[in-house]
Each structure stands twice: as structure tokens, then as C-alpha cells.
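Issue 218. Parser rejects a valid record. Input:
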Amino acid sequence: MVRYEIIEAKEIKFGKNNFIEIARKKAIMDDGENEFISISRGYYLEDGSKRWKASIALPKEKEKREEIAELIKNI
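Output the parser choked on:
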């Protein structure tokens, strides 16, 4: 079984009730831990609670995240 721990999370709101969440997370398993960055898209329900539509995990290596950031900036 895998348990996820959110270390830090930031949110960018857009549109009527959408958001993108960037979070540093840790996957904790019986045989160890793995830290990663997740980018998740979601929306707010009428009661203010959140629902997620999709998510992607990025590597924890800084140089890889910088390379991805540059691609996003220049596309």
C-alpha cells in the first residue's frame, strides 16, 4: 500500500471555478519513500470542496524540472 504526504502545495485559479495545483509530495511505501512534484488540474464544487480531473508527476531532479519549465515557457 502507498500513502501520499503533501509537503507543500500552491494553487493557481483560472476560469470560473478551475485550478492548477503544484505540489511537492512524498510517496511512502513499506520498502521506502519517493519524493516528486505533481501538477494537478481540478475544479471547485458549489460547496467549495475540490475535485481533481487529471495529474502528472514530475521528477525530483532539479535539472529535469528546469528543462521542463523552459519547454513550457518557450512553447
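Fixed in the parser; the record now loads. The longest strand covers residues 32-44.
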